[in-house]
Amino acid sequence: xxxxxxAPPEEREVPTGAAALAKGLYLLDVIGxxxxxxxxxxxxxxxxxxxxxxxxxxxxxxxxxxxRHEESDNTYRLGHRLFELAHRVWESFDLRGAAAPIVxxxxxxxxxxxxxxxxxxxxxxxxxxxxxxxxxxxxxxIGRRAxxxxxxxxxxxxxxxxxHERRAMLEVGSLERFTNRTIVDxxxxxADLALARARGYAISLEEHVSGVVSVAAPxxxxxxxxxxxxxxxxxxxxxxxxxxxxxxxxLMAAARQxxxxxxxxxxxxxxxxxxxxxSQSDAECVLxxxxxxxxxxxxxxxxxxxxxxDILAPSAHRFDPITRVNEEVVLPRLVSAIVPRRGGGLAxxxxxxxxxxxxxxxxxxxxxxxxxxxxxxxFNDGKCDRLGRLWGGTMRLDASRATGAxxxxxxxxxxxxxxxxxxxxxxxxxxPDGRTFYFADSAPGRVYAYDFDLATxxxxxxxxxxxxxxxxxxxxxxxxxxxxxxxxxxxxxxxVRRYAPxxxxxxxxRLPVPRPTSVAFGGEDLKTLFIxxxxxxxxxxxxSEAPFSGGLFAMPAPAAGLPVSEFAG
Length: 569
Known about the structure:
Blueprint: H1 19-33, H2 40-47, H3 51-63, E1 67-70, E2 75-78, H4 80-91, H5 95-110, E3 113-120, E4 123-131, E5 145-147, H6 152-159, H7 163-170, H8 186-199, E6 202-205, E7 212-220, E8 226-235, H9 241-258, E9 284-287, E10 294-300, E11 305-310, E12 315-320, E13 325-330, E14 335-340, E15 346-350, E16 353-358, E17 363-368, E18 377-384, E19 390-396, E20 404-409, E21 415-422, E22 425-430, E23 436-441, E24 446-453, E25 458-467, E26 474-480, E27 486-491, E28 495-499, E29 505-510, E30 516-522, E31 528-533, H10 540-545, E32 552-556
Antiparallel strand pairs: 1-2, 3-4, 3-8, 4-5, 6-7, 7-8, 9-32, 10-11, 11-12, 12-13, 14-15, 15-16, 16-17, 18-19, 19-20, 20-21, 22-23, 23-24, 24-25, 26-27, 27-28, 28-29, 30-31, 31-32
Helix pairs in contact: 5-9, 6-8
């Protein structure tokens, strides 16, 4: 989640006589930008205002309903009057006028056609465009209509619509085929829309017009509803797959700028700066793959291979660390983790629950889906305990709400919901003695520890094991070594951290990429630490600085990892 620093009044050019007003507006900024409600002493520490000044300002802001005081926990939050004013703003909001300079700028930067569109009935309506594609570009006339299911703008808006809105938009007529790449199967389209929602932008690969590709991101109003989309269109010969994804991140930023950040999604599209200079470490990029979101590394003890996934390709991979050969199989839907099965074969956690995976063909076959009635959720990470129960956490596709839960699935395909209320359920593992279970929720930046009973498969006594400050990144995937130390990939932190069993930071391994995603021990002696990374939503300037983003790294570990447990089902 973005948590920008709010500049205090003394760092701004405040007109003479408006100092008090500036302090009051600064106070509103601090309250609004902080991820959790603040108490009086927290506000005093954050603003450096005197106790008397802060009290007078808060009382005045409460009087005008711009701030409200929550007596139950003695915190201050934004007041309802701001929502009323926001409605007034959006009632008179000129979308085309607000977007015009940004459409112009993007057209100059991409040298392609940039278009703004909205939904009109069951079609996309283009309401503005600028073209710099020249004679070999793709032109869009203002007022032109296009189908929803095969255009980037239409798919961006479908992806972020509520399920009932999406059904209403698509129920009129069948999914018409326009090219041999048009998605006309409803299940395949739903999987593609889920992929777009997870990425934050949608892509059309010659699905509407042969030879033309496009990428688009949704523009949200103050309620979080998608009201329009901004997209870039051009010939496939010029807009490569990599360029489309890099442009997608730029379009997400442009969409936020158009709406003035109102209703902005809580996805982090701005990586932290590299605060420490990278120096040579033992971590080596053993596979410069360029994955969108590499995740879920797991060592297969019998095959002596490392399996990993690219959630947003989506694809599954098998890497041989000796030959450095990587095998890839493209999958039909989002996949987040792979585990070996005791009876042979593999199981995978996907947006459709737990499924059997045939790696040679990419075929998935359902085993069980604990969240079949939660279409906007997907599994995000998973690992097996020593009795073969698979533990996996879920999250909302766009990470916008705390709808995630933690599940345990046994070998008989029965499952239990063990905990809930997570935003980005992430890495998990157990202590060497099996008595402590670790589990990360990336959004609040916490790794939790629970008491674990292996016999009953229950957890209890949750406490915070480690916290990662938002300025340092977010905790992602994790693994525990044989000495009981916890290794954690720090998303947007350019590093992997090793924590002692008491939660103290023992070391930090710097990496030449901002977004490490997960870690796993492998190799003959389990003393190689493999590290997956991501390049999703990284702007071109960061990718030029960190070209190995999305690659697989490896380094010798000071202690061996724990043996991999296989799924009993």
